[in-house]
Design brief:
The structure is a single chain. By secondary structure, this protein is of the alpha+beta class. It folds into four domains: 104 residues, Beta-Lactamase (2-Layer Sandwich); 117 residues, Beta-Lactamase, CATH 3.30.450; 159 residues, 2-Layer Sandwich (Alpha-Beta Plaits), CATH 3.30.70.270; 232 residues, Alpha-Beta Barrel (TIM Barrel). It contains 25 helices and 27 strands. The strands form five sheets. It has an eight-stranded mixed beta barrel with strand order 18-19-21-22-23-24-25-26, surrounded by five helices. A hairpin with a 2-residue loop joins strand 12 and strand 13. Helix 10 crosses helix 11, helix 16 runs parallel beside helix 18 and helix 18 packs parallel to helix 20. It is rod-shaped, with a radius of gyration of 52 Å. The protein starts with a helix and ends in a 7-residue tail after the last helix. Bound molecules: ligand C2E and calcium ion (CA) (2 copies).
Length: 689
């Protein structure tokens, strides 16, 4: 082989090797995910990979070895490939070429197809440039959406450096909500947002496993010192290469306030501000749980319903508020009051086991509630009855204790209105008995099982029978005779009084038509009858139906009727009088006896209560009272009747005082119609000496 041949062969081998190396390099370049370009010292294309051509696909047709990048750039600018160049094309190209000449800084380049390219260029040993192109469009998008989420978020947000707790960034909501304009929050220690007392726990707050913050709420301070309650949510992030926490602060102050308000409303009576029934039950449970005993008082208002009806619901509400105030003012610290029903209140005295103490509270409550009220310029009077149950013996469960206090209240209302009573085990049986009796009474009324007896009223001057009082009688199949004092209140409560009263009135009027013309009939009317129906219409219709002359009918009412100060009642009485019916005031002297109403209310007759009559002949005070009443009657032009005369001495004394009429066992008990007629006939008028 010649030398030349040898040299050629070496050269061929070297070329082959170089070609192989070049092919390897190209292969290597092609598998890189980034775009790569080699430029020579004149800025001409030497080598580039497929990825590079793809990124700049809009000018890739111009790429050729030896072509200047400056030229393809210019064409690209003309074609509008670089949105940033728009309007300042020459300037932009100059800047770009400047960077190419002094490659070192990374920079970003936006392309017209919306992608963002990170450019990283280095100088090579031969004066050329090697350039890297990375498509960072997705990253850019993520960043943009983060910034949007952060900056435009309505929830205040902070970026806090984890090592220093310094606030690195805040959004507009944080600036607005915390009242720090501009950059005033930046650089602050995030601890300064917390009131001093929170500091011990803050370390755990800003260095936690992210997400743990939501378990509790924190207090934050605004710039003006107002405190807010916030729920904090955090996420670890890297902010400008600094480990940081992204903290969102949700202000729940308002929500808490609303929750507190709702909680308050759900446990209190909106009218009086006292605890409501549900809260009362809780309080009783708490008292029982404390295990120191205590008393549960159930307070019922007497006469409230009629005041409410006559004065109107607004006055009724004002009255209830006044009652609540008085109850509250009567109680000592530690005791609690509640409104548990329309006109029912509950009081608990935790730890009170001494009966004297409980009695004194009950008495104070009754007298406080019973004192007169001034409502909308009008006087109003109501009473209070109280039932008391003692824990734990009357109930070791709240509902049981309350039920028993309530039962004691019902019994008090029946027998001792205006007083208090303790619960007794027998009350259950009694209440049950009452329910049965009520049922029997209903049947008796419906099936005409009631009788009416008549007790004569005698003229004390002539001895003649001037009238007879109709008294209802009930003979119970099993229990025998039941006194009206027992079943009249029952009828009132069970809503049977209207029916009962109508029956008695009709019977009395019909029976009286058989009596001598100068004998009247007296019928008792319950105040409840005035409340649940039109008494005037009833009387008028009954007189018409039976044919009894109106001036032969007397209706007996009690003072309690006037307590209501109802125009309805007054009108009915005035209309009855107009018709010719006589109105008699029953049981005079036992009631609330405001002498004032004697002059202002329409009635014709005063029936002096039995309690002033019995034993009057030896009792000077009773004589004085009866004398005063008789004198009053004479002055006002009202007749006077003494009730319950049992002895001749009483009769003599009453005659002496000058009482006009009398009634009592001395003359006759109430007797049935058949027995009354002979009695009237037998009883001849006689002169009194
Ligand atoms: P009241 O209207 O005061 O009736 C008088 C009561 O005294 C009657 O009792 C009568 O029997 C009784 N009494 C009469 N004389 C004497 C006496 O000399 N000594 C004694 N110790 N008592 C005497 P009664 O019949 O038991 O009625 C009691 C109450 O029941 C009545 O008191 C009245 O308030 C009510 N009442 C009776 N019948 C009716 C009625 O038809 N309708 C209404 N609403 N109430 C009635
Ligand atoms: Ca009567
Ligand atoms: Ca009476």
């Amino acid at each position: 082989m010649s030398e030349l041949e040898a040299a050629l062969s070496i050269a061929r081998a070297a070329t082959e090797e170089a070609r192989t190396a070049d092919a390897r390099l190209r292969d290597a370049l092609e598998i890189l995910p980034q775009g790569i370009v080699f430029l020579d010292s004149e800025g001409r294309y030497v080598l580039w990979n497929e990825q590079y051509a793809k990124i700049y696909h809009r000018t890739a047709d111009l790429f050729n070895v030896g072509v200047k990048l400056a030229d393809t750039l210019r064409v690209g600018v003309m074609r509008g490939d670089y949105p940033d160049a728009k309007g300042r094309e020459e300037e932009w190209i100059a800047e770009r070429l400047q960077k190419l000449k002094r490659p070192s800084e990374r920079h970003e380049q936006w392309l017209s197809d919306g992608r963002c390219i990170l450019i990283d260029e280095r100088a090579t040993a031969d004066g050329g440039v090697i350039g890297l192109r990375i498509d960072i469009t997705e990253l850019k998008e993520r960043e943009a959406s983060f910034r949007l989420l952060f900056e435009a978020n309505p929830v205040p947000m902070f970026v806090v450096a984890r090592n220093t707790n310094t606030i690195l960034s805040v959004n507009a909501a944080a600036r607005d909500h915390y009242l720090y304009p501009g950059d005033q929050l930046i650089g602050r220690n995030v601890h300064s947002l917390h009131p001093g007392e929170d500091h011990p726990q803050i370390d755990m707050l800003y260095s936690p496993a992210p997400g743990r913050l939501a378990e509790r709420t924190w207090r934050h301070l605004k710039q003006d010192g107002t405190e807010i309650e916030v729920a904090l949510f955090s996420q670890a992030i890297v902010h400008d290469r600094t480990p940081a926490l992204l903290v969102a602060a949700v202000d729940i102050t308002e929500r808490r306030r609303a929750e507190a308000q709702a909680a308050y409303l759900s446990r209190h009576d909106p009218l009086t501000g006292l605890a409501n029934r549900a809260r009362h039950l809780e309080q009783v449970s708490e008292m029982l749980a404390a295990d120191h005993g205590g008393a549960s008082l159930c307070i019922g208002l007497d006469n409230f319903k009629s005041v409410n009806e006559t004065m109107g619901p607004i006055a009724g509400d004002l009255l209830l508020q006044a009652v609540a105030r008085r109850i509250r003012n009567t109680l000592r610290a530690g005791s609690t009051a509640a409104r548990v029903g329309g006109d029912e209140f509950g009081v608990i005295l935790p730890g009170a086991v001494n009966p004297e103490e409980i009695n004194s509270v009950a008495l104070r409550l009754i007298s406080a509630i019973s004192a007169p009220y001034m409502i909308q310029g009008q006087h109003a009077t109501i009473g209070a009855s109280i039932g008391i149950a003692i824990a734990p013996q009357d109930g070791d469960e709240a509902s049981q204790l309350l039920k028993n206090a309530n039962l004691a209240l019902s019994q008090t209302k029946l027998t001792h209105k205006g007083a208090f009573r303790y619960f007794e085990e027998e009350m259950h049986a009694r209440a049950q008995g009452r329910r049965r009796l009520e049922q029997d009474l209903r049947i008796a009324i419906e099936r005409d099982g009631l009788a009416v007896h008549y007790q004569p009223l005698i003229s004390l001057s002539t001895g003649r029978i001037v009238a007879a009082e109709a008294l209802v009688r009930w003979s119970h199949g099993e229990r025998g005779f039941i006194p009206p004092q027992e079943f009249i209140p029952l009828a009132e409560e069970a809503g049977l009084i209207w029916q009962l009263g109508r029956t008695v009135l009709r019977r009395a009027c019909r029976d009286a038509t058989a009596w001598p013309q100068d004998v009247s009939v007296a019928v008792n009317l319950s105040p409840m009858q005035f409340r649940c129906g039109n008494v005037f219409e009833l009387v008028k219709e009954t007189l018409e139906a039976t044919g009894l002359a109106p001036d032969r009918l007397e209706v007996e009412i009690t003072e309690s009727l006037f307590l209501e100060r109802s125009n309805l009642v007054l009108d009915a009485l005035a209309d009855l009088r107009e018709l010719g019916v006589c109105i008699a005031m029953d049981d005079f002297g036992t009631g609330y006896s405001a002498l004032g109403y004697l002059t202002s209310f329409p009635f014709d007759k005063i029936k002096i209560d039995r309690s002033f009559v019995s034993g009057i002949e030896t009792h000077v005070e009773k004589q004085a009272v009866v004398r005063a009443i008789v004198g009053l009657g004479e002055t006002l032009g009202k007749k006077t009747v003494a009730e319950g005369i049992e002895t001749a001495d009483e009769l003599a004394c009453l005659r002496m005082i000058g009482c006009e009429q009398g009634q009592g066992y001395l003359f006759s008990k109430a007797r049935p119609q058949e027995a009354l007629l002979p009695f009237i006939g037998k009883r001849k008028p006689r002169r009194v000496a």
